[in-house]
Amino acid sequence: MRFFEIFKRRKKEIGDRNQELSSAISEPIQYSKVRQFNKQFSELLERDSYIARSDYKHLISLYQDVYQFFESVVNANILEEYINKNKLDILQIRLFLDYYKQIKFLPKDSKIIRNHNDQFVASHIKSEREYLDNILKACDPAILLDDEQREVVLSEEDNTLVIAGAGAGKTTTVAAKVRYLVEKKGLKPEQILVISFTNKAVEELRERINHKLNIPSIITTFHSIGYSILRKGEDEQHKIVDNGFMYNVINEYLKTKVLRNPQLVDKLILFFGSYFSAPYEGEDLGEYFQFVAEADYSTLRSDLQDYVQQVVDRRTRRIQTLNNEILRSMEEVQIANFLYLNQIEYEYEPVYQYRILSSNKPYTPDFRIRQGDNITYIEHFGITEDGRSSRYTQEQLEKYKAIINSKVTLHRKHKTDLIYTFSQYRDGREILEHLREKLLAHGYKLNERSTAEVYKRLIDTEENKYITRLTQLICTFIGNFKTQGFKSSTFSDFKSSTKNVRTKLFLDICEVCYLEYQQALKEKHCIDFEDMINESAELIRMKQIAKKQLDYKYIIVDEYQDISRQRYNLIKELSQLCDAKIMAVGDDWQSIYAFSGSILPLFTKFCEEVGYGQKLKITRTYRNAQEIIDIAGTFVQKNSQQIKKELVSPKRIDNPVIISTYNDNREDVKGEYKGNLFYNLGVAVENAIGEILEYNTIEGKTKVPSILLIGRYGFDARNMCKGPQFNYNEDNGNIYSLKYGNKVKLNFMTAHSSKGLTAENVIIINAKDETYGFPSKVADDPILNLVVSFDTSYNYAEERRLFYVALTRTKNRVFIVTPELRPSEFIKELLSEPQNYPNVTLRGNLKVDVKTPKKVKDSCPICGYPLQFKWNKNYGLKLWICTNDQEVCGFMTNDKKGGTFSIHKCDWCKDGYLVVKKSENNYFLGCTNYKFDKTGCCRIMNIGQYELWLNDSFGVEDTSEQKPSYFVPKSSPMNPKKQKYSITIGKMGGATINTTTYKEVIIENEVFRIIVDSNGNILTDMELLSLLCTMRTRVAIDKKLPSYYLLHNNILVLIATDKPTTREELMSVSGFGIRKWEVWGDEILKNISNYLKLE
Question: Which residues are 585's β-sheet partners?
């Protein structure tokens, strides 16, 4: 400000002097422009208004040549000479150079402008205090804007990002801004466009701005504004369709029409056979183990029900018929499918034709193939051709390579034909290319099956995972493809930019489906939500919409952290067309919709994206206690890429976050609910509710406390009701406690759907470490990286933000229910860092070390790899088998409790195997041919004997050929049949869902179907129902109408059961629409509030 103050003090003097100089001589044109600039800029700074960049950016281009002239004079060190020669005032030039330098680069904040604006805001916070104090009294007399909110209201920059914490009053600030613009800045209400993402958020804004403030500004969703723009620019009206339409079109195409396109059918079969499951592409070994544990390693032969394998059960000695072929790895599945599609008969992991042991177990090559007289073994090695793998240590690699050499030597010795493959080759070609060449070189003919016939059989299978999963993947890809604003030509760009065979193959398939879908939209005169926004932005860009048709001066975007590229494009085009200012409001800590197209950098790099702008913060929260804010804020800011904020609250609370544990071992559930996986979960949630009721009584809060149950997925609510403690209402998805009934108000939501809501208390019910836990570990297909902006800045970055959302919904406390054996990684972090999370309380015990790295649920005790539980045809047993390559670890066991005991070939008999058995106190290995009468094999060994006997060498001759034989299978069925099977994801404990029912009662001579739990206990609050009936009767008498005509009995029952306390909750009651809200809303909420004695 120093030059500006000097300038103001000498303004009159300079003016007089300039007048004298100009009358005496003719001054240089550049100097005249300097004085013009200084005059204009001086007048701008003297205004009592906020200065936006648009107020002075015209000066930048207008005086650019003058600045360049004087800059060159200064650089040449001749400024003094120039001034003396022309008798000029050096102060004028210095002021010009200083001011112009500050404003010449619009994206950079100008100190002189910033100082002016800071003074303006500070002075008007004082001068307009009374107005700002009362600006939202019509909404809520208790609302009083804080200084940060007032700064947002008073600021007038062209592009403003308002970064607000959870519960900091974003909606309140937007409402105040709209009123200020209308009443103080003279904008017409219709010149203000307010946009949000969901109907829920729009309704809340309309309630405050349109209804309570009585300002008829346009408040709408992106889809609605897009549709309204289209109707202005196009004559033809379209039917709006949702994602179900796309799914049906693509699914139908893949099931029927695609058969007319043989080339695409070939690509589909290749994709299904070789590239259906995405490979793991990360570096983290723990994540790789999780990936392996969840992967589907079934073969095409199995899925087409062409696989029948008879196994003699060692325990019952009866024949078992298997129809499900599960391999160890994705690459083995590729090989098996290739062999099947080329009609080469194969057997997976057969016992080698000579009795050879590998680590005291029969040697089983990966495949044995036959064609005519040809018999060949195939070994696939999971390392590169030159002996590398990031999965193994150098010591393991040396062992691996030694066994490869031993296997090759063994086959040469016994003159058995061997083909071997590697996971990656030096020449960069695919495994199957090398396999094809080797098969041909070994005399095999590749007789390709008819892809059309294979495809028809795939379609006809009862459990068609292929078409269903591919349809879902294509729909997700196309939806996000459009959300990013891409066009059909982008497919070619994608294909040319990748060398990944799987990605190219998918893009070929997806492009055809995309064009088929777009054609279906056109033929049926439909439009989807994505095209609605894209086409409206395009209409504006192509000047097919006139400025007079869209006369917006201010565009306010709520929940801007969820902005996608297409929505950003629409906002940008609207702003440019209308010369409208943009105010974007949001919280990057709550950005949780990457899967539907949101791009977080559009928020965090707002100013760079829009060209220039300012960032303001609202950091005072009115929802959470400071202790909750500190925990949640520390948690989310572990990711350094999040915008730093220091949130503050006037509220304080003890025990803000309480973690309650439960026993998640179903084997420990006894009695009536034996084996019920969800019984102990229900107990833990029930105990948390009881503790909330105790706090409620002690702290003198509401009569009937409200509790929000938050799950990671929608099915978490149904799962919880598989225990006997809770009932699920199939009609509206609500949950009711059998123990507490109508003494408590429960509401269930997913973490995603809870965003933007406030609850008195919160219980997070799914804090467990599993695929569908919290954080979710459902892996996204890497193909989606082309169209989805996944945040990889921190481990589980978006899931952390989602957990932050869940933590910050509460006005009081957060209870988190977690299993003892599999607690969420987030829970382990909260408990392992007391210095960062000092107010986290643990109720119960965790049976894991919170500081140890995570392990998959069923892992190999030798190498840590996941275990598969499946029939082993060679042993005649269902075994837990290590998924690691056999060259590194061949562990398998019939009982995981046996620890490191692994199954081996018995060395005392010809046909027995040493399996895990249990004595009274210990586990040991004993032969499968053992008999109680001592007539069988009596080979046993304890752990000490086992460790001495164990031999992990390869290629040892099996000498048990000469030993006694004891095993005699029972007769087999004459005609083994193929059995149908289904693939299930996760086991739910076999429990059924407990649901609510109805019971008829008579009140005031009318029949009401009240809600009761599965035990017949009444869940509807009869006292509240009676109160509501009295209210309805009074109004009915006044209006001379039948009571049921005003509000149906069923609606009153739902209201009395669920006790809504907000407009949103009341509007969600089935049958209670906008008209009933306008007539009854306020009165019903008032009656319920009085009944509950809310704070």
Answer: 162
